[in-house]
From TrEMBL:
Domain Thioesterase: start-end pairs: 18-100
Highest rank taxon of the organism: Bacteria
Keyword presence, Hydrolase: yes
Pfam family, one: 4HBT
Family stated for the protein in its record: Belongs to the 4-hydroxybenzoyl-CoA thioesterase family.
Keywords: Hydrolase
Protein name: Acyl-CoA thioester hydrolase
MF (Gene Ontology): fatty acyl-CoA hydrolase activity
Amino acid sequence: MGHTLDLRVYYEDTDLAGIVYYANYLKFIERGRTEWLRGLGVDQSVLKEETGQVFAVRRVEADYLRPARLDDRLQVRTAVSEIGTARITMSQQVFRGDELLFQAQVTIVCLAAGGRPARIPANIRAVMGGEG
């Protein structure tokens, strides 16, 4: 089950050369993951309020392949690679049309209120495509 987020590159996203600043790709894919969860009906604010649990990035392995520039229209594609009891591995890519600009493997963990690993709630795992 995948998700696509469309976005545009704004001046604030670029460096002095007019190229998207490398760290902004991490923001773009964060937005992609957030909108993917929203699309599944998962409200992260409610999850934190009701259970004290949050999702946090544990690891990112990123490849910057081609630059994006001011006013480019981009697509952030997000797909689940693997779901464990407390961890999700995702594949994320940023495209300009058919051209792959950036790709990353992102490991997300579920944390309890004190910052310790926690099981992803069964209902959330189920909507993500994992076992209940």
